[in-house]
Amino acid sequence: MGTKSRNITDLIEERKSLAARVAKLNAELQELDEEIFAGAQLYAQAAQALSALGLGQKVQANPRPTRPLISIPPPMVVLSRPPIDFHEDEEASDSVLRLTGDGRAKTRVTPGGQAIIDGTAKVLKEAGRPLKIREIYEGLSKLGVSITGKVPLNNLSAHLSRSSVFELGPKSEWWFASAEKQEPPEGGS
Fold first, then answer.
1. Segment (H or E) for 20
2. Lesser CB count within 10 Å: N end or C end of the chain?
3. Higher per-residue pLDDT: 116 or 5
4. How would DSSP label each residue in 63-98?
5. For residue 167, what is the enclosing H or E element?
6. Is the pLDDT of residue 83 over 60?
């Protein structure tokens, strides 16, 4: 069960939809405020007329409602930019953009994180079967891949969960997420 990230386009559309709903609600609130104000003015006029006739107490008009409207954040602007070159490059920056199966950018992976992903793939291919997190950790240690943090097994699990390459099976064992990699490798490597 790898972590699924939401498409940025979908998030932008959802934000626009919510902003439109907030604007509509603000307009409805404004209409209600106007009706309340008009009703309060009518009440004040009636009270003054009764007061002038000596039939009621003098009533001051209610002031205009001062409730602040819900502020609408400015719309998000998506700037166009040149396409990203996804080829392998020795001179690449300190993070690598990974793609999901449908070609959308998913997440940036640091070189240390990429070493964990690559090492895990190698450990799983050599084993030829799904492995528990501790088995993967031991395999990575043999390959010289270090995992930092107070609880390295948790950090390793977090790296694998964020990756679209692996998924956690029903027996808490990790394996490749894509169908074409589910076949065990021939001879191991």
1. helix 8-52
2. C
3. 116
4. PPP-PPPPPPPPPP-----PPPP-S--TT--SSEEE
5. strand 166-168
6. no
What b/e readout covers 24-51, taking b as 16+ CB neighbours within 10 angstroms?
eeeeeeeeeeeeeeeeeeeeeeebeeee
**What tokens does 58 get?**
């003098």
Per the listing, tokens 């009706």 go with 35
Comparing 107 with 116, the larger pLDDT belongs to: 116
- Residue given tokens 């950790």 in the structure block: 137
Residue carrying the six token digits 């392998």: 88
Say if CB 176 and CB 182 are below 8 A apart.
yes
Give the number of other Cβ atoms within 10 Å of residue 103's Cβ.
7
Residue whose entry in the numeric block shows the structure tokens 């932008």? 12
